[in-house]
Amino acid sequence: MDNTPTTDTTDTSTAPAAPGLLAGKVAFITGAGRGIGAAAARLFAREGARVLLAARTEDQLKAVTEEVRAAGGIADYVVCDLADADSVRAAVDRTVEVYGRLDVAFNNAATGIPPGPMDQVSEADFDHIYAVNLKGPWLAMVAEVAAIRATAGTGAIVNNSSIGSLRGNPELPAYGATKRALNSLTESAAVTYGPEGIRVNAIAPGTTLTEMIRSWEADSPGVIDRLNAKTPLRRAADPDEIAQAAAWLLSDRSSYVTGTVLRVDGGMRA
After folding, report:
1. Using an 8 Å Cβ cutoff, are 22 and 46 in contact?
2. For the segment 166-208, what is each residue's pLDDT rounded down to a tens digit?
3. 8 A C-beta contact, residue 180 and residue 165
4. What is the DSSP-derived secondary structure letter of residue 17?
5. Cβ atoms 245, 36 nearer than 8 A
6. Rounded to whole angstroms, how far apart are CA atoms 64 and 41?
7. Helix%, strand%, coil% for the chain, nearest 5
8. For the structural domain made of 20-264, what CATH number should be given?
9. 200 CB contacts (<8 Å, ≥6 apart)?
């Protein structure tokens, strides 16, 4: 018996790269001009998806789209106001026009109002945050389900909620209320469309370094440090870390996950 050690001469440098997490999929992303949405656009494209970016601000959308393309990704954009039903439906329809199908959607866009107790929230601010943070994702999900049914047949949707939706939120009561309602919509959609092979989940980010948290910091200096002190990892998330969770839930690797609200909060609610 020859026990002489052998050397593996396989040349791994020419081995094909592993397919991306979202390879072959068409992804629609709202709020894609900045923050978590922009991070998701970059990530989803790197993971093989063709992406359609939607937001209200065209110059931001154009900049992120050009960045994705420069990195070798496939991207286009459409201006969309989540508070306008026709605009939302047109944005989803545009995805199908550009790419011929819709497989997955990340309903990320949201708006905030100045922090403070609920008796200091104006009726106009409450109506606006409801229209964008709850009615907007509802409109988007309805349009996305129709597009997935008509093209890909099966797919996945992720809604961006908040860790602030999972308990009383005295500093951001209206924001927390809309996000808690979004959790309910997510669960209802998962039960309704699961038999068709359409999965619906949500993520609940903790403190994340976006324009929204920086605006809150400007109104309430020290708030990021206070939140980090309540977070076992003792830091805020980068937007890409939140996008990574959304990408996994949209991918086939989470094929048996639906109806969940996944905490991505550094352990804040542990």
Report:
1. no
2. 999 998 999 999 999 999 999 999 999 999 999 999 999 999 9
3. yes
4. P
5. no
6. 8
7. 50, 15, 35
8. 3.40.50.720
9. 141, 156, 157, 158, 159, 186, 189, 190, 193, 194, 258, 259
Contacts of 236 (CB under 8 A, 6+ apart): 206, 207, 208, 209, 213, 224, 227, 228, 266
Q: Where are the alpha helices (DSSP H) in 9-163?
A: 35-46, 58-70, 85-99, 123-130, 136-150
Look at residues 253, 255, 118, 242 and name the one whose alpha carbon lies nearest to residue 194. Answer: 255
65 three-state secondary structure = helix
* H-assigned helices in 14-104: 35-46, 58-70, 85-99
Give the pair of three-digit tokens for residue 52.
């359609």
The tokens of 246 are what? Answer: 């959304």
pLDDT score of 134: 97
pLDDT at 17: 58
Dihedral angle over CA of 62, 68, 69, 71, nearest 10: 140
* Residue 242: other Cβ atoms inside 10 A: 27
Domain boundaries, given as residue ranges, for the chain: 20-264
Residues noted as catalytic: 175
Please indicate, yes or no, whether the overall pTM of this predicted structure exceeds 0.85.
yes
